[in-house]
Amino acid sequence: MEIQRKTIAKAIVVVFVFNLAVMGAGAWFAYQEAPPIPDEVVGPDGDVVVSGDAIREGKTVFQRDGLMNHGSILGNGAYYGADYTADALDSKVRFMRNYYAQERYGETYDQLDSAEQAAVADVVKSDLDDSYEGGAIRYTAAEVYAHEQVRQEYVERYHEGDHERGVPANMIDSEEEARAFADFAMWTAWFSHTDRPGGTHSYTNDWPYQPGAGNDATAASMTWSVVAMVLLVAGAGLGIWLYKSVELPEPSAEDIAVPEPGDVSVFPSQRAALRFIPVAAGLFLAQVLLGGLLAHFYIERAGFFGVESVFGVPILQLLPFAIAKTWHIDLGILWIAATWLGAGLFLPPLLTGYEPPKQSTYINVLLGAIVVVVVGGLSGIWLGANGYIDGSLWWILGNEGLEYLEVGKLWQFGILAGFLIWAGLAVRGLKPLLDKEPPYGLAHMILYAGGSIALLFTAGFLFTPETNIAVTEFWRWWVVHMWVEGAFEFFIVAIVGLTLVSMNLLSRRSAEKAVMLQALLVMGTGIIGVSHHYWWVGMPDMWVPIGSVFSTLELIPLVFILYEALGQYRAMSGESFPYRLPFMFIVASGVWNFVGAGVLGFFINLPLINYYEHGTYLTVGHAHAAMFGAFGFLALGMVTYMLQLSIDADRWDGSWLRAAFWCWNVGLVLMVFVSVLPVGFLQLETAFTGSYAAARSVAFYDQPLIQTLFWARLPGDTLIILGTIIYAADLVRKRFVLRQSADDPSVEDMAVAEGILGDD
């Protein structure tokens, strides 16, 4: 089946507009259907228990003090501490039961016999199984009592500190602010058990699972899980059919002139672009070291291998889990983004033989600006979370406190400006191609992808700390998921296409067709696929069927990309092909992307499974495997290719990179399959048989079997850290054998440029 490039380009435009229309309508519904923040919550005597301003202030405290990277809210955030929604709801049920037990029988709930406990439990469930019709929220006397008890608990836990939970002293600065945070958490618990007006389930589709409050999986969760499994079979078949039936040229090493690394001149702008690589490697190394610390925090919550008890160094106070987790996430984003930005600036001279005036200078300026943003953002996180930035500046200069969007707004704006500057430099470098190719050409697609990244990143500027948490989460996932699964993946497949062209493995037109088809599949499923994050956060229940369908269809491009990667490696596996090592990373990327985003992603995104596992270690396994698969290994493969071109062939040594490659892959296998996933499945079982709060409790994590599985993560983490150390050391070693750049570069210097520019 022959498909023209123009046809695919039109389909991409239609899909992109359709996606924006659907998600734009979703934004309108988000504001209309978000759980209401009442003016006040009153008790049975009419006395005000909580004001709407206190709830908003509690959300501000939640963000400012980095609580989303210690625990989670509505299942989103870190899995080290409690999920505040589930914890507040569980505590509410527990304290209400004790209130009625004392009122009716003069004893605590646990002291009652089974019949009395059943009677009290029914009263509590009846109190909580209510709907909201507007106005003030009206508490029963038992709810007022429970609310006050939760306030007291949160003051003791998050202000005074709780080392058994890994909470440092003064995580929240004052008792008053800790009470406000409790008010916010209790409000999320309220809308998790309160039915929508005219509905039969709560604002969160009855999440989290808490039988005592009447929360259980809805019928829609079961129905659409079955639909998703049917779609899985159909989607996998469709992916294979597309790969086999659509006529796309395969890369081939036969009868082509693959440029040898030593035959390609290095331009000044490429030497400048290479400077992104050691910066990214330093960020990568810091990330994996922090990852090792975070993993150990689950074992020794107030220390690190006895450092505190032996040397008196208060690790928990100096570097709390929340700050370490924040840096770990942000460093992962930054090292991958820096690597891809460097690759995007390295490739244009390979394709055009063109060096714009002062391009290397501008690239150095961009790198300097990125370093400033990185240092400023990471420093601001620590300063903001520790109370050194007062007033509204805390979320502008300090830490915004939302997972994946932790850095302050100023630094987020700096990241956005960096992408725009990068786009301008890419336009300068790709100008010969842009001038001669059609609007759907390969160079244009690089710019479209970069523009999409910038467009979707602006969603992070559409809320403030006082915005309703449901609306905040709606926009946050635009950035986190649509940026990653749509725009950034489009950007990466375009870069990989350019790389294949630069190797003379594909013609420019052939690469354009392949990249556009993959981009069509990725964007056609990944953007609306974000909606599986909206099931339990207070969004309308229409997202359950939409999210189920599109999340399942996300498997199609992953099957396609895996087949493509394996086919490319088979074609390039001959001994004479000089770029086998970069292609090893491409294959690893395809495999881990399929395993992490495809297999594990499909499993945890079944609505019925996601209802119980949302925010557990199964998500950790999915995230780590998918991160390395979709972005990490491809970025590292690009680094390998760039270095191989920049070093004389007789001085090239890929042995250290190959060793790092196997350390990363074996370490990832051990970490994900020996430790992380087993913990996740045990959490899932606990949620099934008990409650979601029980699966996220310290009691669960402290079980001997779970602690053994945490220790079993150590070999995998060690190999990943070792691989990153080898990689960073190899970059230092290779820094001294880089070739000098051409003094007066021209198209004649480039081994591949003539074929590219002549391909029309």
From TrEMBL:
PROSITE patterns: COX1. One of its GO terms (biological process) is aerobic respiration. The chain crosses the membrane at residues 12-31, 276-299, 332-351, 363-385, 410-430, 442-463, 483-503, 515-536, 542-563, 583-604, 624-647, 659-682, 710-729. One of its GO terms (cellular component) is membrane. Residues 474-673 form the Cytochrome oxidase subunit I profile domain. Keywords: Membrane, Transmembrane, Transmembrane helix. It comes from the Archaea. GO terms for molecular function: cytochrome-c oxidase activity; heme binding. This is Cytochrome B subunit of nitric oxide reductase.
